[in-house]
Input
Amino acid sequence: MNNGHRSPNTPSKMEVFDYLIVGAGFAGSVLAERLARGSGKHVLLVDRRPHFGGNAYDHYDDSGILVHKYGPHIFHTNSKEVFDYLSRFTEWRQYQHKVLASVDGQLLPIPINLDTINRLYGLSLNSFQMEEFLAGRAEHRDPVRTSEDVVVNKVGRELYEKFFRGYTRKQWGLDPSDLDAQVTARVPTRTNRDDRYFTDAYQAMPKQGFTRLFSNMLDHPNIGLLLNADYREVRNIIPYRELIYTGPVDEFFDFRFGKLPYRCLEFKHETLNKPLHQPVAVINYPNDCAFTRVTEFKHLTGQEHPKTSIVYEYPLADGDPYYPIPRGENAELYRKYQELADQAGVHFVGRLATYKYYNMDQVVAQALTLYARLCKLNRAEATDRYIEPPLRTVTFPAKTKRGRSLSSRRRALLPQE
Ligand code: FAD
Ligand code: UDP
Output
């Protein structure tokens, strides 16, 4: 099955790929890895960007500092399966993420905790007293439906306005009362002094960066990689049996029912001539400034360097899609695309293709689930299966001009040779 895209002019000698995978982020790369290494399939992974890794891509900037091109990516999960699976491709640097919010002239812990309240109001409450303090301010909401409900129901209006309302309006271009509860529910409230952003069982950064993790994942003779290539440009040239698509689902169907709203971001990277800029990796600016947060990468990576690199995130209405926007009317529009997707004979997976506000670990889990379904495996088999790579993989011409043979991955990068 190839969704009717095979061109009659396909060169007869060219290999028919078992899978054409659109998008080399976590969704596409996990599937490429598993299908190739776990089931001996031949896959071609295409991405319109000049690199693999999707939004998790990192690289060394001009000063030699490891930065995340598309904003801070911190790995955290409660899934042992996902952590063990990714651990095959990287060693880890233990890292507990900390965030401060700039509120009323102070840098205060977020998620809101005991220290946040004590420092904000000049108090010295203990945990029990903080519970009472919040109970006295919380506005009971039932049901808890929106992102406003979640916060005011726990901490009341004043703290909601100081920490959440402005940030959310900036980040999403919407009032929290117009967003599903799941958005602000990502940030808990604590009555203890735990100042970690996440409490997942596994929290770590790939020791040599995400891009290295991806490169280890994709290093297999059955995986061809074609970068700077939009699916639309190659779909009629590349012969394939099945299609896996991880790009925006509305774009795949030529926006037939209209555009699905995605929130966009502009990233402004800067290198500063000093070793350290801020006390923690991320500082949120809920109320002032056009940007939402500033990230200093050396906190995440542990890199030592006389200079430091930071990134500002400016939310935008238009541009590359980064965040599906969780609200009722968007979910309804997505359902229409999902019905088309179910009938298209194409496998849609990942954050943009399934219109889900997923973290990296959730996308990895979703991709493993799809792999298990495609190859009729149970979950343990899906992550554990390993097949020796075959000796022969012919895709594009197997020799360079100098007569040297190329790995299939390199061949795919040089289709014109
Ligand atoms: P993507 O990474 O978006 O990959 C999709 C790929 O498809 C892209 O490379 C794109 O170029 C390609 N593509 C799309 N259409 C086409 C086409 N027509 N032809 C060819 N290629 C195409 N998650 C965490 O767990 N922790 C974090 O700290 C975290 N921070 C984040 C910060 C920001 C600013 C953002 C935006 C996201 C963050 N995430 C975080 C979420 C994380 O980025 C995603 O869960 C994950 O990267 C999604 O992987 P994916 O493969 O679904 O999509
Ligand atoms: N949020 C907020 N103030 C903060 C941190 C988060 O209002 O200081 C809200 C905001 O709506 C944000 C959401 O909670 O989009 C989820 O925050 P998270 O840090 O998980 O966002 P992400 O890292 O996905 O951008």
Q: What stands out?
A: The first strand starts at residue 17 and ends at 22. The chain is about 30% helix and 20% strand. The domain at 17-94+206-257+324-384 is CATH 3.40.50.720 (Rossmann fold).
